[in-house]
Amino acid sequence: MQAYDEGHAVNVGGPKRRTLLAALLMRPNQIVTDDELIDRIWSRPPNRARAQLQVHVCELRSRIGKAAIVRCAPGYTVVTSPGEVDRDRFALLASRARADRDAGRLEEAVTKLRGALSLWSGPALGGVEASLSAIAGPALEELRAGAVEELYDVELLLGRSGEIVAELRAILAEFPHRERLAGQLMLALHRADRTAEALEVYTELRVRLTDELGIEPGEPIRRLQQQVLRGENLQGGGHGFVKPVESVPRAEPPSSVRESPSTEPVASVGHVQPAGKELPAELPHGVRGFVDRRAELELLDKAAHGAHADSGQGPEIWVATGQPGVGKTALALHWAHSASDRFPDGQLYIDLRGFSARNVPLEPAEALHALLRSLGGDLPAPNRDIDELARIYRSRLAGRRICLILDNAATAEQVRPLLPGHTGGTVLVTSRRRLTGLTARDGARPIRLGCLAPDRAVELLTQFLGADAVAAEPVATADLARLCGYLPLALRLAATAAGTRPDIAALVAELRTVTPLTKLSADEDEGVVAASFAWSYQRLPLDQARLFRILGLIPGATFSARTVAAAADCPQAKAAAGLRALLDDNLVEQCRAGRYRLHTLLRLYAAERAEAEETARERTAVLLRLVDHFHELATAANRFVTRGCRATPGTGPTVFAGREAALEWLRAELANVTAVVTRAAQCGYHARAWRTAEAMVPFLRLGGHDGEWRSISLIGLDAALSCGDKRGAAAMHLSLGLAYLEAGPLSTAAHHLTLACRVGAAAGRSDVVVEALTALAAVHQCQGGLGAAVRAARRALGREEGAGALRVSPGPSHSRMGEQGRAHAHLARADTLNNASATDDPSGLVLLELAWIRRCMGDTEGAVRDYHDALRHLRLLSTRSARPRALAGSSQAHADEGRYGRAAAHAESAPDLARGADVPWVGSAARNAPAHAGHGMGRVDDAVESHREVWAAGSDAAMHRHRVEAPVGIPAAGPVEAVDALASGEWAYAVASRNGYPVLAGRAAEQLADAHHSLGNLGKARTWRAAALTAYESCGHGPGAVRVRRVALQAPLQRAGK
């Protein structure tokens, strides 16, 4: 991605601005919406993406001209003239070249094609964000590859075989899987009497395709290889690689060539149908409304393409499995109809009735008799045994390329006698069971079908309801698809229920008031959803049927064998075996290793069966076993979170191997714990609910789960208030206060923390009061109430000091007030106590604050040392936001010392960790760090861009120092207009002064002094330098004060020199 102005390169800025310009240029003179641009610039859009987009547009306009990018609601347009965009020039030249070739002007065609290709100077959309290049790049590369093939097509027509060999080799290295290019190279080499090299090209291509893609070369290039082997004269056209490959007619070589073991087979093993016999064509009609399944269809297509010769390994066998109603038969029939031309000897279809409410499963002998009748010829006697029937059947199929659909199979034993014995055909089995025996013994390949993606489900509904109806009610249509669980059968039945004049919103409302399984039915049709589920359920053994019912009682989306064992009150090994059996029957899905889930409608069905077949006492017992199970495991897991890897002795069974195992369990079960707590509270088990909610708080303080944290805490608070438990209410107010402190708003955090102090004191929960006061001190700091922050910290200190380890100290508040000496003294004492108690959490937090104060005092060497020690402690810290803060601070301290390489190394992983923390101001700190390092290493544009993003994305609710650093860093990172520097500097100075950040206030004042000096306002420049000196001296920041005095001394000398 490059821009030029009258032949001179224009620096449009960093990757995001290049992406913005490229996204607009992909659709010149058309409106590209804000949402589209945001999606293309950021793979994960920031909170204030629109504001940042406006910043990028302004910067881009300043580089390429304001008139070039026009605001046209709801987006922007880039205005271009014909020929200004290389892609358009390329397309025009390629089009004219084709016209020249068709008119016989071959030299002119070559000239234009080479001119078009010369416009390329690298990969398509190089230098832009992957969120755009991954979408638009492949199409542009395809245009280029097509033009390359057209060029060498014409060069070969002109007889320039020897001249283009080197070029073709180079371009084939760029596009190693393009068979047409390989064929053109083979043709050029063969014409140049280099036949051995031509055959090597084919061999290398075949190895690449089979090793990397698992497919064989296509028929045209296989035919070309045979022609080269036979030494045919391949001058002129008509052989497939001077014309497009697709235009070459299929040639059937003699059988002697096909069967020769020394050559690649070039055609199918054909079967000559006896005269007067009709080919079997037994496929039922396809299902209306078939959508999606592109990946599965491509798999089948590739396999059928390579299954044309008999290698003795048997046919291609596929087993399509999935839950009832997922569309297994629809997939089989759709593909078989679309691929009918690949099976010249016909298609066979048989319903094996494996899961049918009206018929028993078809015996293999019955199925063989039916298939033999379809194949024609004399029928065997009825008394033949199954093995003899299978031998006759395989003999009848020998040499035929037939597609065989074995629908609705029950077991592998039912299918195995029906498998052909030769290669050349394709067998597609459908079953609700996974039929792993066919995979293990017969080499079958599984196709596991899941439900449709939401947009594909809407597409299916559109085919039934009509585009106008869906366009009129898009939200209701999406809700309807979701209520159907994106299950194809349920979607078709819902569309049928809507009728020919659909009121989609009314149907959605009805489905929300009745069980969808009841509504989604069709009279006297065994294909209804509930009936499909019932037939699978009724065939389960008793213990598996009970387990299936228990699954319907487990709240939450996924579950593990451990959870199921607790719910079912059985050993974990037995639960795991039961889940595997249900998985084989496709009644549960395995979403990842060790975790399972029920489809939405299957969950409803399981719950219905539990309601009908389990007693109320047993259903209650399941819930209580679950909530007690989650409370016990959450308590055990969080001991690792709060105590590092040192589990507290004598506190229960050892259920986790270590901290990582405990964290993995907590992450996996968070949603399920929330669901169980909700159900327990709804059913009146309030004490169990709030205690289980409280057990999750240490994990939630790691960050990254703000929404879930607030949700489970609110449920716990409501439960505690409902049963009048003040201890529980205090704990839940504290949890909510901490959650809002992390993500805002701070006023809500202060409200809950104040209540936590008051209720906790009344209930005798000193631990809650200390935590709440500590958090209140942080809230007051962010809000600028530094005196209140000191008072809250001192109250907490008085309660916690006797514990030996200090998580809290008034030091940070003294620092914000400019009292760096007092701040340092408090924090150093806290650090000494924490070292004596050998606890990781408080030590890491205190060292973070100590390092910041040392930076404020100009002690960069001490700051680097403290950040290093903090990182060592924070490897086990129970808040995910602390580690990215430490990395960012360490990076900036190294940058202060001029060690930009180390600064960049520390800054590299900070943004990724900050995204995991999901705390806005931590993200600001993490993005500022690489900008500071980049400035020192000369990456000015990227540094400015990062600082602007931080400033634009900030929230006025909490003026953390990290956001104030961003506008201060903008002029430091490169030349900025003086007016802009004044605006950002005045804002930064006001916020830094108000919130107690004297170092940043000094840097902002220096920025303002420099801006006024450049504008000639020397008096204002002196005033702001004096303000900077005052700020630096107030906090003991020696380097800043020295710098200001030095500049003040140089100013009169500069005036005298002029």
Automatic annotation (TrEMBL):
<dbReference type="Pfam" id="PF00486">
    <property type="entry name" value="Trans_reg_C"/>
</dbReference>
<dbReference type="GO" id="GO:0006355">
    <property type="term" value="P:regulation of DNA-templated transcription"/>
</dbReference>
<comment type="similarity">
    <text>Belongs to the AfsR/DnrI/RedD regulatory family.</text>
</comment>
<dbReference type="InterPro" id="IPR005158">
    <property type="entry name" value="BTAD"/>
</dbReference>
<keyword id="KW-0238">DNA-binding</keyword>
<feature type="region of interest" description="Disordered">
    <location>
        <begin position="803"/>
        <end position="825"/>
    </location>
</feature>
<feature type="region of interest" description="Disordered">
    <location>
        <begin position="883"/>
        <end position="912"/>
    </location>
</feature>
<dbReference type="InterPro" id="IPR036388">
    <property type="entry name" value="WH-like_DNA-bd_sf"/>
</dbReference>
<dbReference type="GO" id="GO:0003677">
    <property type="term" value="F:DNA binding"/>
</dbReference>
<dbReference type="InterPro" id="IPR011990">
    <property type="entry name" value="TPR-like_helical_dom_sf"/>
</dbReference>
<keyword id="KW-0805">Transcription regulation</keyword>
<feature type="region of interest" description="Disordered">
    <location>
        <begin position="235"/>
        <end position="284"/>
    </location>
</feature>
<dbReference type="InterPro" id="IPR001867">
    <property type="entry name" value="OmpR/PhoB-type_DNA-bd"/>
</dbReference>
<feature type="domain" description="OmpR/PhoB-type">
    <location>
        <begin position="1"/>
        <end position="90"/>
    </location>
</feature>
<feature type="DNA-binding region" description="OmpR/PhoB-type">
    <location>
        <begin position="1"/>
        <end position="90"/>
    </location>
</feature>
<dbReference type="Pfam" id="PF03704">
    <property type="entry name" value="BTAD"/>
</dbReference>
<dbReference type="InterPro" id="IPR027417">
    <property type="entry name" value="P-loop_NTPase"/>
</dbReference>
<protein>
    <submittedName>
        <fullName>SARP family transcriptional regulator</fullName>
    </submittedName>
</protein>
<dbReference type="GO" id="GO:0043531">
    <property type="term" value="F:ADP binding"/>
</dbReference>
<dbReference type="InterPro" id="IPR051677">
    <property type="entry name" value="AfsR-DnrI-RedD_regulator"/>
</dbReference>
<keyword id="KW-0804">Transcription</keyword>
<dbReference type="InterPro" id="IPR016032">
    <property type="entry name" value="Sig_transdc_resp-reg_C-effctor"/>
</dbReference>
<dbReference type="GO" id="GO:0000160">
    <property type="term" value="P:phosphorelay signal transduction system"/>
</dbReference>
